[in-house]
């Protein structure tokens, strides 16, 4: 008797929509970056900026930074990595950029001790940490070095969350020990993230003789449809190791 076929668990964000989202974010990143560079160049040539020019430059900078954060989150979500966390990160990034911009254009720049600054710092900070986790999870953990690098980096990133939450209301400016601790942990996180990226790149080159590509597959265990790296990757739903070789 033929066993019943497994049904693929539907993705709330279809691949086409995810690609569309990343395309929009790339465009926002490009346009805001160009605006930021142009604004800085104008100020450098003309001298002291006006209030309107300052708002335009800070707005372009906020859009540029948050577009980069959201792009990392959307890319990880498209790969099927911790979708609910990546979705939360996208929402936080949206809250962060809207809060910063509304504060600047509302006539009251976010200042220390205000609710606007607290919401802006917390949402932007948490979105950044979730983006780092998403980028880490999107890398293939092949071999003990890559596995432990990924675990340690994610653990250090998680450790930054309570530190940042405690620092955002104001102690960051008054506690040198907190600044030093966050600086050390942040440097370790960046080093771990760069190491994971390098290891993933080397693995991709060794596995396929070129940069690792992506292929759409359905997990045989949980039925989740997703895009995985050629040569070996993990299912974003159940963690099953899946190896796909293309001659």
For this entry, give a set of tags.
247 residues, 3 domains
Largest sheet: number of strands, sense, barrel closure: 2 strands, antiparallel
Low-confidence stretches: 1-19, 208-212
Principal-axis shape: globular
Tell me the fraction of residues in β-strands, as a range. Answer: 5-15%
In the sheet with the most strands, the strands line up as: 1-2
Secondary structure class reads mainly alpha
The SSE order reads: HHHHHHEEEE
Q: Count the beta strands.
A: 4
Rounded radius of gyration (Å) = 21 Å
Gap between N and C termini, in Å? Answer: 34 Å
Mean pLDDT: 78
Helix content, binned percent:
55-70%
What's the helix count?
6
Total count of domains: 3
Characterise this structure.
The structure is a single chain. This protein has 247 residues and is mainly α. The protein folds into three domains: 15-138, no CATH class; 143-212; 213-247. It is built from six helices and four strands, in the order ααααααββββ. The protein has helices spanning 15-46, 51-78, 83-105, 115-137, 144-167, 176-208, and strands at residues 214-218, 225-229, 233-234, 241-242. The strands form two sheets. A two-stranded antiparallel ribbon has the order 1-2. It has a two-stranded antiparallel sheet with strand order 3-4. A hairpin with a 6-residue loop joins strand 1 (214-218) and strand 2. Helix 1 runs antiparallel to helix 2 and helix 4 packs antiparallel against helix 5. The two termini are 34 Å apart. The model is unreliable at 1-19 and 208-212 (pLDDT under 50).
């Amino acid at each position: 008797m033929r066993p019943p076929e497994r049904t693929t668990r539907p993705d709330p964000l279809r691949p086409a929509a995810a690609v569309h989202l990343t395309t929009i974010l790339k465009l926002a990143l490009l346009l805001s970056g160009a605006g930021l560079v142009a604004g800085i160049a104008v100020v450098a040539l003309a001298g002291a900026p006006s209030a309107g020019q300052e708002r335009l430059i800070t707005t372009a900078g906020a859009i540029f930074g948050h577009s980069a954060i959201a792009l990392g989150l959307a890319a990880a979500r498209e790969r099927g990595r911790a979708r609910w966390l990546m979705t939360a990160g996208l929402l936080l990034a949206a809250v962060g950029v809207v809060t910063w911009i509304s504060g600047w254009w509302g006539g009251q720049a976010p200042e220390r001790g205000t609710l606007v600054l607290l919401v802006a710092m917390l949402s932007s900070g948490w979105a950044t940490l979730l983006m780092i986790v998403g980028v880490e999870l999107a890398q293939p953990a092949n071999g003990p070095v890559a596995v432990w690098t990924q675990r340690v980096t994610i653990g250090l990133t998680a450790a930054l969350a309570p530190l940042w939450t405690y620092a955002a209301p104001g102690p960051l400016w008054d506690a040198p020990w907190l600044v030093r601790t966050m600086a050390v942990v942040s440097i370790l996180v960046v080093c771990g993230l760069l190491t994971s990226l390098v290891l993933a790149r080397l693995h991709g080159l060794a596995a396929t003789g070129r940069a690792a590509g992506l292929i759409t597959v359905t997990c045989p265990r949980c039925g989740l449809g997703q895009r995985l790296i050629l040569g070996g990757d993990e299912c974003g739903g159940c963690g099953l190791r899946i190896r796909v070789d293309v001659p």
